[in-house]
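job 3f2a | input accepted
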Amino acid sequence: MTDLVRVWLVPVDVPAAAEASCRAALDDGERARAAALVSPRDRRQFTVAHGALRILAGRELTASPAALAWAAGPHGKPELVPPWTGLHTSLSHSGDLIAAAVSPGRPVGVDVQHLVPGLDAVGLSARFFPPDEAAYVAAGRDAAARADRFTHLWARKEAVVKATGGRLWPNLKVAVRGRDVVSCAEPPGQHRVADVPAPAGFRAAVALAGAAPFVLKQAAWPRGTWPEVSGSSRPSR
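job 3f2a | predicted structure (237 res):
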C-alpha cells in the first residue's frame, strides 16, 4: 500500500473564527510563547501555524488537538510522544504562508519559501549548491526566473532536511533538482521528495524518509483559499 502524506497550506491572515480555533488548540506552553512575542503579526503567525498543525494532527489521530504533545527526537526534530508516536508531523512558514504536514508511519518534512525580491540567487547558489544546480539557477532568463529556480531548489533541500531532522548547511550540496529520491548527507539516508503546488510567489516541497513512493493530498485551510489536489509524488521541474 502506498504511503500517504497530507499537507495544508494556511494563510497567516485566516478569518477570526479560524484564528480562534487555532488559539484554542494550543497548549499552555505555546500560549505563553505566543504571548511573549512583541509583534502582533508574529503572535498571529505563531498561533495560526502551531494551532493549524495541532488541528491537522488531531483530525488524523481522532484526538483532541490541545492534548497532543511533542518532544525532541534523536536529531532534534519534534516528534509526537505516546500514545501518538505513529504519526509524523512537520511545520514551515515563510512570508504570509504556513505549511503543515502529517504522515502516518514515515518521518516527514515540509517547507514553504516566499520568493524574495532582489535576492542574489546566483551568488547564493554558487556558494551553497552543487555546480550543476548553481549553473541551472544562473541560466534563468532574468532575475525573477533565477530567484524562482533558487527558491524551488532551496525548498526541496529544506524539506529533505526537515524529514531527517539534520542540519541544513551540510546538506545544501546534496543534489535535489529533477530527482525523486535524494541521498541526505547528514545524517545519511534516502528520502523521497516532491513539489507541493503553491500560490504565486511561493515554492513548497514535501519529503518522506525512505525511497518508497507516496501519495500527496493537499488542501488549504480554511477551505476555499486554495484548491484541494491529490496525486502521486513527482520530480521537480
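job 3f2a | The two ends are 27 Å apart (CA to CA).
job 3f2a | closed
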